[in-house]
Every structure is written in C-alpha cells, then in structure tokens.
Amino acid sequence: MRTKTIAAGVLALSSALSLSSCSSAGTSDASKPVGQVRPLVDKKNWPKPVPETGLAKGLSLPLEDYAIPYAERVDWDEANRILQRRCMKDYGFTVDLPRPGVNPPPNNNEANIERRYGITDRPQAAKYGYDLPPELKKHTKHPFADLPDIQVEALTGHTKPGTPKPIGEVKGDGGYFAAPPQIKPARTEINGKKTHKGGCIGWAKTKLDAPEPDHFTVASFLGDSLLKSQETTAVKNVIADWSSCMESKGHVGLADPYEAMEQGAPAGDTATKKNIALAVDDIDCKEKTGLVKVWFEAEAKIQRQQIKDNQTKLDEIKQGRAEAAQAAKAVITG
Fold this sequence. Notes:
Blueprint: H1 2-8, H2 10-20, E1 27-29, H3 70-90, H4 122-128, H5 134-137, E2 139-141, H6 149-156, E3 166-169, E4 176-178, E5 189-190, E6 193-194, H7 199-207, H8 216-229, H9 233-248, H10 257-264, H11 273-289, H12 291-309, H13 311-333
Parallel strand pairs: 1-2
Antiparallel strand pairs: 3-4, 5-6
Helix pairs in contact: 3-7, 3-13, 4-11, 6-7, 8-12, 9-11, 9-12, 10-11
C-alpha cells in the first residue's frame, strides 16, 4: 500500500528537508566580523520542545517522553568536543573542532511532530509552501582547518585518509567508481605520549561517565506506531475526508498528506504560487476534517500500548538518557 510506503519515509523526508537547509545557497560565513552574521550557535533557531503554532500546537506523543531532545544531543556532542580538545592539547595540539548546535534541524526529536501528519502551520505555508522558513535554511559555514597528518592520527587513532582513486569505469555514463580511502593505525606514540585506542575521539568516549544515549529504539517504535495508526478506521476515514476536501479545491488524486508534500515540494530555492496554494489548501482541509487531531489521538493510543508492552526497556532508555545528560553537563560546566 503506497500510503504505508510513504509513511515509512516521513522521517526521511523530514531529514531531506533538514539537509536542504544546509545547502550552499543562503549561507552565512562565521569567519566574517562580528555584527555581520548571526552568532555561531543561535539557540533562538533551535526547534521548540513542543510546537507553539499551527495545528500541531501543544502536541507531544507519548513516546516523545523517551526520545532525546535536540538540546541534549547538542550537550552530548559538546561534551565530547571539550574532551577531544583537552586530549589533543595533551599532545601539544590546539585544535578548533566543529561546534555542535550551529545548524539545527527543523524538528526537536525523531517524532517530527510538526510534519508527522504533513505540514501543519498555515502562516508558514502561506509564505513558503512546503518549504522551510528562511531561518532554518541558512547554513553557517563552520571554519575547520585541514589538520596535519599527525594531528589526524592523534584525534582519530588512524592515519589521514587519502584521496579516493578512480579504479574502474561505470558502465553507461562514462564516470568512474573509486576505491574507498585507505587508512592505517596511527603511530603508537605522538610527541612522547602513547596514542589512545580510537584516538582522542575514543578517549573522550571513555571519559564521559555514561554510555551514548540510545537513539534507535524509540525511533523504531515511532516508525511502527505511525504505520499502525494508518491501519485504524479513524485514520483511514479522516484521510479519505481530507482527500475529498482537497479534490473539491481542485487537487485531484491525492491519496494522503504525504503525497501532497511530495507534489508540493519546491523544485528550486523558492516555492511557486502553485506550491503555496496547494500547501494552504492542504492545511485548510486538515483543519476542516480534524485530521491532525484524529490521527494524533489514534497514534497516541497505539504508543501507550507500546509503552506498556516495553516499559522495562523504555525505562532503561530514559534512565540512560538522564545519566548521559548529567555526564555531559558535568563536562561542560566542569
């Protein structure tokens, strides 16, 4: 069933939109003088924990209690960065490693509640169609020097990858495929100090007083609940009502909101009037039929059962997340 296939990829579609916000178009250079660009880490553009506008305003699915918020992900990465720089300094190297939180995604966690059932914010749709707002499309270039070979070894525990070499022709298009870059273990000692297993990256992981949080189990449950929700009578009926509403506005043959998102996604940097008209009608039909509320309630019911069936595992994940957050804060504030 096509609806199920598209639903399975709704988070991938969100990721694609997120990646589009990191395109070269509309970039700002963090190396320019202060005052000409936004701050390197601009928290006002970070995704909100719960949507504050649109049809998804105030909605949070039960499984989101176990998902890792963006701010906690940034803290975890920042703690690793601090430890990696500290380790590199022990070898005599001062490096400026990439800062986390510079280019935030449009969603706070894997649920992507803002676009889980298609777009939900009418004012945004009236301006940008299915595209992201400009503040989420900007990409701040983060200066990161090409480290010398010895520093790469200290950081990663292996030699600097070489440039991939073409080793054969791809049939049909005249191009070439390349061999994967070759790496070797780092030298055993750098500047009189033993090289860590996995380099400073590996060392930092051992120094954080908690294992890395589990990102995948909750994401898997979220994918399952979305698919199962579409098999419910309530969701099937409300999608049919939405489709009929869209047909009455001249948009014929749209099976579900995901298909509308695919059809209305801008081909270039700016949404067309046609894209915008489709997006606005999409949201108006969602509001008229109550699609977001009906779908949310059907999926929330499924998730409550998932939580009941997997309570021990989810409690472990939540505890691990709390320990990771505490460990990261200890490094950042230490």
